[in-house]
Amino acid sequence: MRAEPLLREVFGFDSFRPGQAEIVEAVAQGENTLAIMPTGGGKSLCFQLPALMRDGVTVVISPLIALMRDQVRGLKEAGVEAGALTSGNTEEETAEVWSAIEDGRLRLLYMAPERLASGGAQAMLRRIGVSLIAVDEAHCVSQWGHDFRPDYLRIGELRRDLGVPLAAFTATADAETREEIVAKLFDGERPREFLRGFDRPNIHLAFAVKDQPRRQILAFAEGRRGQSGIVYCGTRAKTETLAQALREQGHSACHYHGGMDPDDRRAVEGRFAREDGLIVVATIAFGMGIDKPDIRWVAHADLPKSIESYYQEIGRAGRDGAAAETLTLFGPDDIRFRRSQIDEGLAPPERKAADHGRLNALLGLAEALECRRKSLLSYFGEEVETCGGCDLCDKPPELFDATTPVRMALSAALRTGESFGAGHLIDIVMGNETEKVRQRGHEQLPTFGVGKDLSKGEWQAVFRQMMGRDLMRPDPERHGALRMTGRARPILKGEESVTLRRDTIRVAKSDRPVVR
Ligand code: ADP
Ligand code: ZN
Q1: CB distance 456 to ligand 1 below 6 Å
Q2: Among the listed ranges 61-65, 307-311, 380-384, which one has the minimum average pLDDT value?
Q3: What are phi and psi of 295, to 5 degrees?
Q4: For 453-486, what is each residue's pLDDT tens digit?
Q5: Exposed, middle or buried: residue 261 (CB in 10 Å: 0-12, 13-18, 19+)?
Q6: Are strands 499-501 and 399-401 parallel, antiparallel or unpaired?
Q7: Are 333 and 270 in contact (CB under 8 A)?
Q8: Distance from the CA of 390 to the center of ligand 2, in angstroms?
Q9: For the Rhodanese domain, which residue ranges apply (predicted)?
Q10: CA dist list (Å): 96 to 81, 82, 91, 190, 475
Q11: Can you tell me the distance from the alpha carbon of 274 to that of 287, in angstroms, rounded to the nearest whole number?
Q12: 483 vs 12, 116, 279, 448, CA distance in Å?
């Protein structure tokens, strides 16, 4: 059957979303495909529809039982024979799936990856006439991602064994994960690749320097009273205190993190799905599988760990296409925290370098000088003409040539053996005779007091923007000490100049919270 009539009659949609038509066609024709589409972009249709265009059974591997059940329910309501074999099944459900298989009625068979571990499952799949394997959340084969599922590594073997085409789907766009998927699922043979629809024009992007984070988040929530939102926090403890603070302001709010009892977590998920205007304050444990279309805002009380995580997390807002807003707070402590998380991790050195790169990409976005949407999408390899809305397009920042203060800062760091943190370096350039300065004789340095023109707040902003541009990095060996990176050298030598944003400097100086 052709795609368009099925799209209308079975799925009830008038037209394809960006990218869907080409992917459906490639998958239906039996090409190996890797489709990278953002969360909410409409990936499931890209294998469900081809499943109906092809003879035989399409096996869908998916990591989340709840998601499988939702899809099976949706398909059945649309009159499509679909079933799931998962550990969550009742006996009747399993018996029903089996009888549909035996009768040759079943079109889509959803399976948890764990099922592939049993030899019986593979033999069964060989017997029932599978014509396509669809892999949802394909980034779960990546050993480095936080969603790694060892059983996903069996999928490549299944594909070889059955000799049928495979269509892999993920929202994770970075090149390394893509390569890992190609290596593990397609044995390194290039599939057709699609990267589409990453722009979410209805989501407004904004960052603010972390100043008084609790007040900033409360003020943001205040302006959106009665709307469903998520606040992401870096720690479990913070989710609890912030949820409490929101409740004290009369919001309906609850916390969510991986340390909670599974029943309590499910209760929060259920409330969030059903209730209007609930705020969930959560760690990243609140994520995959949240399928609420009308989340009106997402705020980050702490900086995410990479540009990919940022994109995934804000992407949960506004799936219904109506306007949604985001606010991401960041500050020097976040940068230090995320850097040390990478440095102290167990990953091999190449991996750590890549992770620093992804963090840099996010910091670049945080400290961007112009349109955030353009910076964000260009990272994913997509170009956009117009901006649906970001804080920098709303109000272009004032820039200034910061070469002189940046050189002062770098020189203060170098002359003190790159052994001190921003606070002490600021005391040196500002000429503050603190006890620490006197003990080390740093008042003798030629850089002592050269930066009196800027206030402490302005200097903090300069240091933060320098860390954001990766001109300086915390030394993993010495707590808090800032070291110069290779990027700083041409500036110090006078070969390059640096432009910084004045607005964040002003903001850091005043003590009012920064809210759009
Ligand atoms: P994801 O890419 O996150 O898996 P889904 O497949 O769940 O996204 O789709 C997200 C939402 O978009 C669903 O509610 C789905 O019904 C809807 N959708 C998908 N394709 C279309 C389309 N062509 N027209 C309208 N709505 C669509
Ligand atoms: Zn913009």
Answers
A1: no
A2: 380-384
A3: -75, 120
A4: 999 888 988 998 898 888 998 887 777 789 999 9
A5: exposed
A6: antiparallel
A7: no
A8: 4
A9: 230-262
A10: 11, 10, 9, 38, 60
A11: 17
A12: 58, 49, 40, 19
Share of the chain above pLDDT 90, in %: 70
Show the tokens assigned to 231.
């606040």
- Residue 506: pLDDT band (50, 70, 90) is low
- Whether the CB of 356 sits within 6 Å of ligand 1: no
Tell me the ipTM for this assembly. 0.96
Whether residue 373 contacts residue 204, with contact meaning beta carbons closer than 8 Å, is answered with no
Closest CA to 469 of 352, 308, 332: 332
Residue (of 508, 510, 437, 428) closest to 468 by Cα position: 508
In whole angstroms, what is the distance from residue 376 CA to residue 203 CA? Answer: 12
CA of 72 to the centre of ligand 1 (A): 15
How large is the greatest C-alpha to C-alpha distance in the chain, in angstroms? 88
Q: Is the CB of 49 under 6 A from ligand 1?
A: no
123 in helix, strand or coil?
helix
Check if 16 has its Cβ closer than 6 Å to any atom of ligand 1.
Answer: yes
Rounded CA gap, 85 and 118, in Å? Answer: 13
In terms of residues, how long is the chain?
A: 516
User: Strand pairing of 399-401 and 324-330?
Assistant: unpaired
Instruction: Compute the distance between CA of residue 420 and CA of residue 481 in angstroms, rounded to an integer.
Output: 4
| Dist. CA 253 → ligand 1 center (Å) | 28
Ligand in nearest proximity to the CA of 201: 2
User: Alpha-carbon distance 243 to 484, whole Å?
Assistant: 39
